[in-house]
Amino acid sequence: GDDSSLASNEKFGARYFLTANVTFVNGNLDPWHSLSIVNASDPFYEAGGAQQVTSPSVDIVEINGTAHCRDMYAPNAFQAIGINDTTPVIWAHARISENIKRYLS
Fold first, then answer.
1. Which of 9, 94, 96, 99 could be joined to 50 by an S-S link, Cβ 3.0–4.6 Å?
2. Residues 6 or more apart whose Cβ sits within 8 Å of residue 83
3. DSSP character for 15?
């Protein structure tokens, strides 16, 4: 719940992330995303009142309708078993790829 999220964030500083070239990827169905850096529209943005602070080069990619690690599978990884990538997954893969190219340039 909110109290455990606040305690974890305060103990580990998870909401205060000033660094460069980092992409935080979360599925909005993943219970762990409540402890991550999330979009301002996410219900856990201010989990337990913990302020989220990031540097301008931090990018947040929240994938609607997915859970833990969905972004880590290759595009169309499940197509052979009849599961196509959703529009949010396709968008996330493109966004992550763009970020990596930018980070390495």
1. 9
2. none
3. T
How long is the chain?
105
How far apart CA 67 and CA 99 sit, in angstroms, is: 21
Look at the alpha carbons of 52, 54, 56, 60 in this order and tell me if their dihedral is positive or negative.
Answer: negative
Which of the four pLDDT bands, split at 50, 70 and 90, describes residue 9? Answer: low
Q: Is the pLDDT of residue 6 over 90?
A: no
Least confident residue range of 3-7, 14-18, 33-37, 74-78:
3-7
Radius of gyration of the chain (CA): 15
d(CA 41, CA 55): 18
Indicate whether 49 pLDDT > 90.
no
Determine contact, residues 35/14, Cβ cutoff 8 Å.
yes
What percent of the chain is helix, strand and coil (3-state, nearest 5)? 40, 15, 45
